[in-house]
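Weekly structure sync, notes
Attendees: PL (lead), two postdocs, one rotation student
Agenda item 3: pending single-chain targets
PL asked that the sequence for the first pending target be pasted directly into the notes so everyone works from the same version. It is reproduced below exactly as submitted, 137 residues in total.
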Amino acid sequence: MAKICGSCGSQVDDSYTNCPNCGALLAQPTQPAQPVPPMQQPNPGYGQPMGQQPMMQQPYGYQDPNLKSKMVAGLLGIFLGGWGVHNFYLGNTSKGAIQIVVSIVTCGIGSIWGFIEGIMILCGSIKTDAQGRPLKD
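Predicted structure, written out during the meeting:
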């Protein structure tokens, strides 16, 4: 492979370090560029590293905007628990649908189930939503 002189543009043999026409120092041949690996995207897994990706550091005082409120879920369970509204809020849609059916079939007596779950949420017995994220205070 021949070198090209950057000063005069003449083609020079690889064995030369200086251009025989103009005397300019010839650039050394470079190795072909290595492909740059693509940037790894942050994990949407809420604090759990995926594969070899490092866990991203969050600034002090950062709170995930997707976290559900323990107070809201508990009050929904106490006041609208027969309709499973608190379970829909927490992402447990199938459990919420079952609570609606139980309340209708038992003429409202099954709503005690939702009332008790609302109290359990406020007391801290139920600590996570359907995706496993902790409830915020």
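Discussion points:
- The CA atoms of residues 18 and 26 lie 5 Å apart.
- DSSP finds four helices and two strands in the chain.
Action: rotation student to compare against the earlier draft before next sync.
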